[in-house]
């Protein structure tokens, strides 16, 4: 009898959780639908203004300010709050930009007049397009990182991106469909993802991934001088396929513009046997991301529990 009651409660709790996911998803879809009624620029600016007001009242704001205080112990409470509000501004823009990617991405390598997008590293894109070997690209949750694979495709460089779906399955399904439409091939971050990326590299393809998320089974490293666990996947793939690794990032500029930057390949640290050193490479990635974040702290996702 007790077992049946527990089973019944478990089933109801799952249904309640699914209903909660559905309810939140409908609210998100309604918000996106309303934003679609506005011109792209107006919708993005409106989202940013609202987020600056609402963001500090959410539970994630405390996570963000705690993270900022740990990363910048020298900053005052007012300075920490200012960066956190900038973060909400940037995250809200990212939310709205999902539905206006076609309007935002106006980069044309042959255009005479600059648009919303400017690109640093054009010769690198062109060179890699013609190389007959696999490459790994990495970035972080800075600016609108979603624009990077679109930019690569502009140069005829197809990149399969590793992507972590939202926990809400209804939102995840919608986001995955939108990203497939705009950004080409995607590999959801779940069991079997490493094998999928490995097969792409084995066939001479290109993969991209975000490297600034918490990974409980990761290798010990540091970020802003504090201990973290870092996903070793990129380093392991680079070691297995002996392929070049390239950093890339997006920076938000004044006036609703963006700068996409592709850097030259990294010299990865190697062990005595000449193989890529996984732990040292993980630390190198953290150091690069930390440099980016310190340069534009308000454009990084501080509410992520990177140190938790």
Automatic annotation (TrEMBL):
Q: What keywords would UniProt list here?
A: Acyltransferase, Cell inner membrane, Cell membrane, Membrane, Transferase
- GO molecular function annotations of the record: acyltransferase activity
Q: Where mainly located?
A: membrane
Does the keyword Cell membrane belong to this entry? yes
List the subcellular locations: Cell inner membrane
Q: Name one Pfam family in it.
A: Lip_A_acyltrans
Q: Does the keyword Membrane apply?
A: yes
Q: Which domain of life does this protein belong to?
A: Bacteria
NCBIfam families listed in its UniProt record: PRK06553.1
UniProt name for this protein: Lipid A biosynthesis lauroyl acyltransferase
Q: Which organism is it from?
A: Daeguia caeni
């Amino acid at each position: 009898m007790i077992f049946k009651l527990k089973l019944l409660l478990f089933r109801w709790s799952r249904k309640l959780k699914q209903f909660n996911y559905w309810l939140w998803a409908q609210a998100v879809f309604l918000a996106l639908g309303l934003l679609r009624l506005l011109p792209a620029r107006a919708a993005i600016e409106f989202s940013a203004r609202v987020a600056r007001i609402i963001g500090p009242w959410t539970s994630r704001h405390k996570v963000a300010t705690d993270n900022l205080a740990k990363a910048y112990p020298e900053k005052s409470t007012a300075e920490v709050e200012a960066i956190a509000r900038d973060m909400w501004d940037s995250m809200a823009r990212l939310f709205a930009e999902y539905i206006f990617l076609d309007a935002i991405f106006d980069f044309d390598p042959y255009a005479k007049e600059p648009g919303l997008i400017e690109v640093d590293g054009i010769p690198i894109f062109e060179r890699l397009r013609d190389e007959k070997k696999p490459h790994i690209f990495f970035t972080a949750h800075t600016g609108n990182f979603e624009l990077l694979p679109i930019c690569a495709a502009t140069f005829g460089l197809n990149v399969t991106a590793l992507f972590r779906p939202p926990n809400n399955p209804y939102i995840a399904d919608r986001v995955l469909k939108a990203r497939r439409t705009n950004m080409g091939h995607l590999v959801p971050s779940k069991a079997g993802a490493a094998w999928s990326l490995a097969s792409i590299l084995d066939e001479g393809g290109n993969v991209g991934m975000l490297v600034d998320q918490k990974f409980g089974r990761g290798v010990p490293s540091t970020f802003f001088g504090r201990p973290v666990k870092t996903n070793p996947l990129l380093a392991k793939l680079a070691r297995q396929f002996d392929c070049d690794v390239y950093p890339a990032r997006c920076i938000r500029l004044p006036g609703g513009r963006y700068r996409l930057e592709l850097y030259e390949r990294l010299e990865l640290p190697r062990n005595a046997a000449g193989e890529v050193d996984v732990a040292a490479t993980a630390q190198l990635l953290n150091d690069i991301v930390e440099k980016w974040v310190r340069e534009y702290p308000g454009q990084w996702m501080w509410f992520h529990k990177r140190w938790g």
